[in-house]
Each structure stands twice: as structure tokens, then as C-alpha cells.
Design a protein that fits this description.
326 residues, alpha/beta, Quinone Oxidoreductase, Chain A, domain 1, 2 domains, 6-stranded parallel sheet, 21% helix, globular, binds zinc ion
């Protein structure tokens, strides 16, 4: 099969012909139809996440057709493969409904090969049916930007005025969900990024502005999707007493020191780690009811490096998706 391979931190990914992967017990053999590109892929590429499997096929938002089925998913079914690839089922986190924190979790496109390839294998217990009505390309960003964005919004509780920092794939999906739930959305982007601000307004934000400036009114919660630690004090400053700031990314630059008064007033600061299968089921049932519409830009498999660099430079509108047989 053709695949894009990470040999060492720093990259770039190398186009290669690999042997077809062989599914083990409980695993599916999958023909990849589309695979979304995520900021986490950049953190792995840059060596900011310790100890990936190497060499590695990245990609953890896989939409695929089952070639060899198992008990839950038959040959011909369309499935989605998310970041959470395997959990132990035994540790105290797994046994308390928090498999996202599993001590021994294995992640797709990090601890095991992912979807920047024509074929992939996945543990069928961690694969989701994809809702009908979503073409492959449009479904791919639901699997991480959507799922983990959704978990991030959930952890903000019932906040009505929600600020979103960093307006990319996750933000454009979660804005639609938040609006559907009757919340108000305020979008924060890099200074002067008119394109991102206009995009935010188009998908339902009522205000869009620069991330270091004040919002037009106090917020009840802030979700941070940009990997920029300096946004944490900025977001704390923007939320009202009792509000929360939720960091949705897997890696962030250092958070600068800030005065305690920004946290005082029962403000909460927390992160989101990974997803549970329950998150996936809940979000994939909700997405068509909103309905969430994803905006995607597609890239051929050999253009995966280009997709990653466009994500890095902030030039994308919505999500990048790699299509192996485009
Ligand atoms: Zn991701
Ligand atoms: Zn576990």
C-alpha cells in the first residue's frame, strides 16, 4: 500500500510503499477513504509528544470501508477510527468511565499506525459507525476536531457566553453545536486575521476579534484550541466570576505567570485529554441533528506534508483532509 511515513521527529513525512497491514484478533482491515489532519499531528511531527511509534503512519480521523470484518462491523460497512485506539479496560480510570485517561491507552497515528495510507487496521471496539448523510470527506473532521471539541464544550458546563480561542477545525464545528444548544459564541483569532474572523461569523459566532483584546462583554467560559500558553491568562481575564477556561489541545507552549486575581472568584482552569467511546457515540448522534456542516480542503496522500504546513501557517479554512485515492 502507499503510505506517508514519519521516520523521526522533525519529518517531513516520506511517501513509501509498505506491506499491507494484517489485522490481529478483534481488528478490522480497512480501506481508507479519507483521513483528517489534526494539530496533534503537528505536535507529533515536531517531537512535542514523547515517544511515538517509529516509523509511524500518522492520521487519527479515519473514514474507511471495512474490507475484513469482525463481530461488530461487517465487510462493506463504513466506519470512523478516532484518536483513542485501545484501552486496557482494567485500570482505575477505565473502570470509572474515564477511559480517556487510561494508563496504558494506545492512540491511533501515534502508538499504532493511522490513516495517512491506503489501508489501516483498527480494534473494532474503538470504531464508530459514521452517520449517513455525511460524505467521507465531510465526516473525517468529526472524528477528532468534532469529538474532542465536543468534550471541550461539555467541560465548560452550561455556560451561555462561550469564547473560542483559535478558529480552526474544532472551533468551526463546535460553534455550530454551541449555537444549536442556544449558547452565544465569541471567536478570538490571531491579531488581524480577517479571514478567520469572517469564517467564525459565517458559522455562527456573533462577534469575532483579536485574541489579546477584550470581548465586548464578559464570558461564562472560554475554550482554547490554539496551542498558545499566553492565551490562558487572556482567557481568564475574559471570563466572569465562576467561569471556566478549558484547554482543548494536547500540547501548548508554556503558560506565563499571572496574578492570582485572574483565577480568583471561583474561576476554573482545566484541560481536556483524549476522548471516551461514550463521547464519540454521543457526538456522532448529535452532529446530524444540529446539523453540523464541516468545511474541508482535500489533499492527495502525497500532499500530506503540504496539508500539514498549511495547517501550521493557519491558512486553512476549516479542516484539511487527506484522500488516499484522490
Ligand atoms: Zn486530533
Ligand atoms: Zn485503562
Amino acid at each position: 500500500m502507499r503510505a506517508m511515513v514519519l521516520d523521526a521527529a522533525g519529518g517531513p513525512l516520506r511517501a513509501a510503499d509498505l506491506d499491507a497491514p494484517e489485522p490481529g484478533p478483534g481488528e478490522l482491515l480497512l480501506e481508507v477513504a479519507a483521513c483528517g489532519v489534526c494539530r496533534t499531528d503537528l505536535h507529533i511531527l515536531d517531537g512535542e509528544l514523547a515517544e511515538p511509534k517509529l516509523p509511524l503512519v500518522q492520521g487519527h480521523q479515519i473514514v474507511a470501508r471495512v474490507l475484513e470484518g469482525g463481530e461488530r462491523h461487517a465487510a462493506g460497512d463504513r466506519v470512523g477510527v478516532p484518536w483513542l485506539g485501545w484501552t486496557c479496560g482494567e485500570c482505575r480510570f477505565c473502570r470509572s468511565g474515564r477511559e480517556n485517561l487510561c494508563d496504558r491507552a494506545v492512540f491511533t497515528g501515534y502508538g499504532r499506525d493511522g490513516g495517512f495510507a491506503q489501508l489501516a487496521v483498527a480494534d473494532e471496539r474503538f470504531c464508530f459507525p459514521i452517520p449517513e448523510g455525511y460524505p467521507d470527506l465531510q465526516a473525517a473532521p468529526l472524528l477528532c476536531a468534532g469529538l474532542i471539541g465536543f468534550r471541550t464544550l461539555r467541560l465548560a458546563g452550561d455556560a451561555e457566553r462561550v469564547g473560542i480561542y483559535g478558529f480552526g477545525a474544532a472551533a468551526h464545528i463546535i460553534t455550530q453545536v454551541a449555537r444549536h444548544e442556544g449558547r452565544r459564541v465569541f471567536a478570538f483569532t490571531r491579531g488581524g486575521d480577517r479571514a478567520a474572523q469572517e469564517f467564525a461569523l459565517e458559522v455562527g459566532a456573533e462577534w469575532a476579534g483579536d485574541s489579546h483584546g477584550p470581548p465586548p462583554e464578559e464570558l461564562d467560559a472560554a475554550l482554547i484550541f490554539a496551542p498558545v500558553g499566553a492565551l490562558v491568562p487572556a482567557a481568564l481575564r475574559a471570563v466572569a466570576k465562576g467561569g471556566s477556561v478549558v484547554c482543548g489541545g494536547i500540547h501548548m507552549s508554556d503558560i506565563p505567570a499571572f496574578p492570582y486575581e485572574l483565577l480568583w472568584g471561583e474561576r476554573t482552569l482545566r484541560s481536556v485529554a483524549n476522548l471516551t467511546r461514550a463521547d464519540g457515540e454521543e457526538f456522532l448522534a448529535l452532529a446530524p441533528r444540529v446539523p453540523v456542516r464541516t468545511e474541508v480542503e482535500s489533499f492527495a496522500l502525497e500532499q500530506t506534508n503540504e496539508a500539514l504546513s498549511r495547517l501550521r501557517s493557519g491558512e486553512l479554512r476549516g479542516a484539511a483532509v487527506v484522500v488516499p485515492d484522490r
